[in-house]
Amino acid sequence: LNVPDNPVIPYIEGDGIGCDIWQAAQSVFDAAVKKAYGNSKKIEWREVLAGGKAFDKTGQWLPQETEDSFKDYLIGIKGPLMTPVGGGIRSLNVTLRQNLDLFVCLRPVSYYSGIETPVKEPQKVDIVVFRENTEDVYAGFEVASDDPRVDKLKKFLKDEMDWDIKGETGLGIKPMSKESTERLVIEAIKFALKNKRKVVTLVHKGNIMKFTEGAFRNWGYEVALREFPNQVTKDPNDSSKLLINDCIADAFLQNILLKPEAYDVVATLNLNGDYCSDALAAQVGGIGISPGANINYHTGVAIFEATHGTAPDIAGKNMANPSSIILSGKMMFEYMGWQEAANLIEKGVSTTISSKRVTGDLASMMSGDPETLGTNEYAKLII
Ligand code: NAD
Questions:
Q1: By mean pLDDT, which of 99-103, 137-141, 293-297, 336-340 is the weakest?
Q2: How close is the Cα of 308 to the center of ligand 1, in Å?
Q3: Is the CB of 288 under 6 A from ligand 1?
Q4: What are the DSSP calls for 133-172, one per residue?
Q5: 221: Cβ–Cβ under 8 A, 6 or more apart, which residues?
Q6: Partners of 10 in the β-ladder
Q7: Substitution candidate for ligand 1 out of 11, 97, 310 with most atoms within 8 A of CB
Q8: Residue 352 φ then ψ, to 5°
Q9: Sign of the C-alpha dihedral computed for residues 31, 33, 34 and 35 taken in this order
Q10: Ligand 1 centroid to residue 286 C-alpha, Å
Q11: Are 61 and 96 in contact (CB under 8 A)?
Q12: 131 is in an annotated binding site
């Protein structure tokens, strides 16, 4: 990416605690850029609307200009968005990912010293999840049990497939295409090679869903060995190359508790990826601080995001933990090639957490005598 020294970066503040965490995060980002580059680089932050704030101002939950800004400026960042319950409004996050074809959901998971964790050796967890972001049961092909079209679908399935679906039943479709599998697995392998990782694991339920999840596994192996014949191997004894292997999703969820060091880079489908990335984050105590990004590596459009929700119970109270969006900002700087700013953010967050002067949610996961700080005070300490 060719990022100018004064890029415009659109941001969605987000609902609930969005306002609290965004202000804290922006102060950390500006300080990191200033310290790393003096006056030679500076970000022009531009607010774009989505969620409750957008609805109040424009009557739309996700205005077209917001999507257009991300397309125009390529790199953006967002806080959490509430999805209105009922009324047929789809998740705004899913809509953004699909409309901008952000085909990778990238979720790195690693341990921050000082946090108490459910696993005994959390320092062994250093896993990067590449989750397919546009297909699977999240593609949105779902019909409610009382939708008149369900009967037509049932009739089609009975006549054409001899599947007799009885009673009050909602129906959903799970698409998984070769194209989406290949583009995801290629990016996971490129990342693994660039970062000198050892293994890419395809996580799937191909034993049960042969033509979707099983196809994902088969296409994954095929594309890896076809596109990277000299760099990737299926042979676990060939340590000169990047290993590609696979694991069934339920075994994966057991194994990450028992031997997390066996995993490195993971490529998986949308629903598995949703479960696995949160389970991994929880394992290192990082569910509230884990960062994420949604990326289309072909167009370059990337939106970095806080992975938690809007936490309405603590909104506006200077209590929220801004680490998730701050660490997503670190990922954003890496993506921009501003590695020095990214390094400063990493150092600021890790030393602050290990000093045990943190927001309440993190303090409650620490032994000893942690000091509870407000959102703003915590961000100042990171700076
Ligand atoms: P949530 O993540 O908002 O809250 C779960 C619990 O974690 C709450 O007790 C909350 O106080 C706490 N929490 C969350 N983030 C925190 C932070 N940064 N610091 C301290 N504590 C934090 O999940 P929920 O209650 O299930 O969802 C609330 C709303 O958020 C819903 O409308 C949901 O659709 C939305 N949501 C959005 C996203 C997103 O935009 N990426 C993700 C998940 C949920």
A1: 137-141
A2: 5
A3: yes
A4: -S-GGGG--EE-TTSTHHHHHHHHIIIII-----SS--EE
A5: 202, 234, 244, 246
A6: 46
A7: 310
A8: -65, -45
A9: positive
A10: 14
A11: no
A12: yes
Task: Quote the longest CA-to-CA distance of the chain.
Answer: 70
Task: Please state, rounded to an integer, the average pLDDT across all residues of the chain.
Answer: 95
The 10 Å CB-count burial string (b at 16+, else e) for 14-37 is bbbbbbbbbebbbbbbebbbeebe
What does the alpha-carbon distance between residue 153 and residue 151 come to, in Å, rounded to a whole number?
5
Catalytic residues: 138, 205, 250, 274
For residue 119, what pLDDT is reported? 87
Ligand 1, atom 30: closest residue by C-alpha: 309
Instruction: Look at ligand 1, atom 42, and give the residue with the nearest C-alpha.
Output: 309
Number of helical H runs and strand E runs in the chain: 13, 15
Cβ-proximal residues to 125 (8 Å cutoff; 6+ apart), any chain = 109, 110, 111, 119, 256, 260, 261, 280, 283, 284
**1 pLDDT above the threshold of 90:** no
- Known binding residue 97? Answer is yes
CA distances from 134 to 70, 137, 215, 268, 299 (A): 17, 9, 16, 12, 15
What pTM was computed for the model? 0.95
Ligand 1 centroid–CA 81 distance in Å is 9
Radius of gyration of the chain (CA): 22
CB-ligand 1 contact for 52 (6 Å cutoff):
no
Phi, psi at residue 127, to the nearest 5°?
Answer: -125, 140
**Terminal alpha carbon distance of the chain:** 27
What digits encode the pLDDT tens for the residues 237-255?
Answer: 999 999 999 999 999 999 9
Contacts (Cβ under 8 Å, ≥6 apart) of 245: 199, 200, 201, 202, 234, 236
Q: 90: annotated binding-site residue? A: no
pLDDT(89) > 80: no
For the chain, the helix, strand and coil percentages under 3-state DSSP, each to the nearest 5: 45, 15, 40
Neighbours of 148 (CB within 10 A): 8
Token digits of residue 136: 């699977």
Q: Is 96 in the pocket of ligand 1 (CB under 6 A)?
A: no
Residue to substitute in 274, 308, 373 for testing ligand 1 pocket (most ligand atoms within 8 angstroms of CB): 308
Cα-based distances in Å from 4 to 19, 40, 220, 370: 27, 11, 36, 41
